[in-house]
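input
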Amino acid sequence: MKFNRKTFFKIHSWVGVKLSIIFFIVCLSGTLATLSHEMDWLFNPMMRATPSEKLASKNLIIQNLAKEMPEAKIMYWQTLEDYLCDQLQVLENGQRYFVFANRYTGEIQGRLTLTFQRYFRDLHYYLFIPFQVGHFTVLIFGFLLFISLVTALLFLKNWVRKLFQLKTGKGSVVLFKSLHQLTGLWSVLFVFLFSVTGIWYFLERTNTAGISKIANTKMPKLEVPYSDTTAFKNIDKILDYDRVVAAAQAVMPTITVKDIALPRKLDQPVYVTGKSHVPLVRNRANRIYVHPETYEVVQVQRAEELNTTTWLNDIADPLHFGYWGGLVTKVIWFFGGLAITGLVGTGIWISLKRKVKNEKQRQAQRLGKWKWVNGVIFGLMAVIMYYILIKIYAASWVMLTAITLGWAILIGLAWYIYVYRIDQAVKAELLKQEERRQRRALKRQVF
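output
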């Protein structure tokens, strides 16, 4: 095959159009996931916290939680942004809850079975499709996004000049094509970043070249397991959390503890992660394992001592979701993701507008096999999504209504833009063509 600009354009169009519906959902869900914690702050007042220099004792928080939920078993403790409560994942009567504890006052401010952050992260992570099918469906788009970027730069002439060029006054097709190119060029760095990190996730999940084994350190086993089997059943309540934090800070003075995972077996330590002076890496770059009975540190992993593979693995999440610099970089990444989502949307519109020039082509476009592929994947996702939300997350009717309304608005807008408006444009064009034929026929009769 001879590769030229036309070939690269065809590849670019194929990637952007054939799986466009799922592509759009992956991009949009990832974009919303960047500010999902902030959505929780906005819509769930129980998650809000007013920052203060003084922190409440973690043991006090546990005591308050025991009063609120005496049957709950703590699984994981996560410290989020300064303006958000700590989030404790607990199990009560077989149901998982996210409990919100104010780290400054020690107060338990509420609980939910599902948050905005969890919903959008799951949607972007695996489209709610289980058995690794959803994970790999999403991860494939990392390669497709990279191909789309490369082919766009190869077929686009004088793309440097187009950085400041927006064509107006020449019709909607020319305008949207110019806007598509302009947005694409200004978001090249984000497209590259999202695609490369997406490809890295694929390589990690498939353990290509042993990446997963190298980058994800196994939890060590305690040489001297927890001695009291009966007491261990209530380890989440009797553990001295303040002492665990103190032990971690003793061996890593620069760390701000962010996450605490409780042991599930007698020979497992308490797993502590956090932020240190090393920039860009996620919390897991710093790992401290503490004995739950003696509070001795049994193993330490410092971000500054990571091998290259582990370091790359630990910067992937912060770079992909943009949380490495706090709220400022989150907002920047949100608009970067929004631009890429817009590229998918305008690319679909341009393709449909260019292809459906007559009735025959319009029908072919409607019944194309790739629309069925998109439809089947979306239908499967929707059915399993509601099953998971209802059966596993026990989502409230308010949350289910909000999610359904959001999808209804999105589907309605898509139908209006890509079906109704395109149909109206085609009908108008067919009417013009018929009028031109009638005028030509009339002229032939006259002359």
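quick obs: Residues 397-446 form the longest helix (50 residues).
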